[in-house]
Design a protein that fits this description.
The structure holds 2 protein chains of 2 kinds.
Chain A (H helix, E strand, L loop, with lengths): L4 H25 L7 H24 L18 H25 L4 H26 L12 H25 L4 H26 L6 H4 L8 E5 L7 H6 L5 H27 L4 H25 L14
Helix pairs in contact in A: 1-2, 1-4, 1-5, 1-10, 2-3, 2-5, 3-4, 4-5, 5-6, 5-10, 6-9, 9-10
Chain B lengths: L13 E6 L8 H12 L7 E2 L7 E2 L4 E7 L6 E7 L8 H4 L6 E3 L6 E3 L9 H5 L6 E3 L4 E3 L5 H4 L12 H5 L5 E5 L6 H9 L15 E3 L21 H14 L1
Parallel strand pairs in B: 1-11
Antiparallel strand pairs in B: 1-10, 2-3, 4-5, 6-7, 8-9
Chain lengths: 311, 246
């Protein structure tokens, strides 16, 4: 599948944003005191900025941007519609939570709103993941890994942001760095498990079954319908050289999860906390973008079979 | 509502039956489809760089040719590929706007290009590659089963069939109601063992494909011609044949 820059940005940025919101919401639900006001309010500012950037990036992907509002209508069947609605509904919830934290930190209402904000954040990420997980023709997406993985990456990247923010506000990363380190470890394991799963999968179909012949019939393309690339090949037939994929996987692992793990451990031990948490965020961002690029580039679509591509 | 509406019992399910045995791969159906649909009720079907080195554009129907089987059983199978108007169209349920829909009364899957936002998700959801993005209008496009032709009462009744069916010189394309077991197309599917493409994926396509028939004249792998006659030459050749066959 073609890795469109707009979608990579959308999913990575909203991952950071809603991951951070989930942690901030949980913090509020646990009864964050007034001393946490700066942390929570600054954090929510970052959440709103990143989520809005992500949503703008996703709108750039549309053929008719001025009609984007129509995407909210089909929530009863479409995960994309649900994602849009969940993202929109999160705005008033976040603003309500920020206001409550500012006016009455630690009150029952604030704690409730914090919990709701965390739930809204995670629901939005879940809807994003389900857009991919529900697409049957793409075996690398339509599997039990996709949805939990997106949640894990969001919580991990949000935790790195939280650690940086906490360091800026309080001077030390504290528990946030421990969360980030644990998140990095979970993300690393989840990614390895995902790759193991998709590498072991067989193709969903054969060319013969795609043209209605018995599955094991030998079939090969003789004449293509057209001599230049078309939409189907550009969108669904994206191919990446295997040796590049191997290299990029290593980069994604090291940059996305390995280095943030190391840096978060350093930060939790109090070693140059500002530098290590900033670097952890930067590495996680670049690594997750690489990981997301691979999630698309290595996904194969059944329709590419008709053009003799391997799926 | 993008959810597939509960279709009334006895509702028609219009579709195509495509005969892979008789299709000669001439592309006439694709050309006539393009011709009808670029001038029909829907917006033009765009071409990009039509006379350049990288011609591209939107087509509802594309014809592939494959070689199947091996050695003696090898044959060419021409394969026209278009929307199958599935009973279980994931392209419809993933649509966030309701632009994609399946008509309750005849089962045709259509796109309302007036509200489509061009997110392309429907093209990802279709395993048959039937939906293409129209870069000129920023929306998705697909086969309409010539909905602006099959119901046009200003046309003579015999012409009220999809453009691809009307033009096929090999009569390899058939149009009709596949929900009616007595229809000509349903009969054809029964008689010839019509199949669903990618049945395992569960889309329940309406269009059926009739598999190529088994060759009537067996064409076994060629054996060495029988040696007859006498003489030194023939004897030498027989000797050589024996030596080589060992």
């Amino acid at each position: 599948m073609k890795p469109a820059a707009s979608i990579l940005l959308l999913t990575t940025l909203t991952g950071f944003a809603y991951g951070l919101l989930a942690w901030l919401g949980l913090y509020g639900a646990a009864g964050a005191s007034e001393s946490a006001d700066t942390l929570v309010l600054a954090g929510i500012g970052i959440v709103l900025a990143l989520a809005t950037l992500g949503l703008i990036a996703s709108a750039l992907h549309l053929g008719r941007k001025e009609r984007a509002w129509r995407a909210m209508s089909q929530w009863r069947s479409s995960w994309l519609s649900r994602e849009g609605l969940a993202a929109l509904l999160t705005y008033p919830i976040v603003l309500g939570y920020a206001w409550a934290q500012y006016r009455a930190a630690g009150s029952l209402g604030t704690r409730l709103l914090g919990g709701i904000a965390a739930l809204a954040a995670l629901s939005t990420v879940y809807c994003t993941a389900m857009i991919y997980a529900s697409l049957k023709p793409i075996r690398q997406w339509h599997n039990p890994h996709t949805a939990p993985d997106y949640l894990i990456y969001a919580l991990f990247s949000g935790a790195t942001l939280l650690a940086l923010l906490r360091t800026i506000v309080f001077g030390t990363a504290g528990i946030a760095a421990v969360l980030a380190a644990f998140g990095a470890l979970c993300a690393l394991v989840a990614k390895l498990a995902y790759w193991r799963h998709v590498d072991a999968q067989g193709p969903l179909a054969t060319l013969a079954s795609a043209i209605g012949l018995p599955k094991d019939t030998t079939a090969r393309p003789l004449d293509a319908p057209h001599f230049s690339e078309n939409f189907i090949l550009r969108e669904m037939g994206f191919q990446i050289a295997r040796r590049h994929a191997r290299k990029l996987r290593r980069i994604a692992l090291a940059l996305g999860f390995g280095l943030p793990l190391l840096l978060s451990v350093l930060a939790s031990l109090g070693v140059l906390p500002l530098l290590s948490t900033s670097l952890a965020v930067a590495c996680a961002a670049l690594g997750l973008l690489t990981e997301r690029w691979l999630f698309f580039a290595q996904a194969t679509h059944v329709a590419a079979l008709y053009y003799g591509r391997r799926i | 509502m993008t959810m597939v509406a509960n279709r009334p019992p006895g509702a028609r399910q219009l579709g195509l039956v495509i005969d892979l045995d008789t299709c000669v791969g001439c592309h006439a159906c694709a050309v006539n489809c393009k011709e009808w649909n670029t001038g029909g009720e829907a917006a033009r079907l765009p071409d990009y760089d039509p006379y350049g080195t990288e011609p591209d554009g939107v087509w509802f129907n594309r014809i592939h040719s494959y070689e199947t089987g091996t050695d003696g059983s090898a044959r060419t199978v021409n394969f026209p590929r278009s929307c199958l108007h599935c009973e279980n169209p994931l392209c419809v349920t993933v649509c966030p706007t309701g632009a994609s829909f399946k008509r309750a009364d005849d089962g045709i899957v259509l796109i309302n290009t007036d509200i489509c936002i061009g997110c392309k998700l429907c093209s990802w959801a279709c395993p048959y590659g039937a939906r293409e993005f129209d870069e000129t209008n920023g929306v998705m496009r697909k086969c309409t089963l010539c909905v602006d032709r099959i119901y046009d009462e200003t046309l003579p009744e015999a012409e009220r069939e999809p453009a691809c069916v009307a033009t096929c010189p090999a009569k390899a394309r058939h149009f009709g109601d596949l929900a009616d077991p007595q229809s000509k197309v349903s009969q054809l599917v029964r008689d010839r063992g019509g199949v669903d493409l990618l049945e395992d994926l569960g889309y329940r396509p309406t269009n059926k494909y009739l598999p190529p028939r088994q060759a009537q004249i067996p064409s076994p792998a060629r054996e060495a011609p029988a040696r007859s006659g006498s003489g030194l030459g023939t004897a030498l050749l027989k000797l050589l044949d024996k030596a080589l066959s060992r």
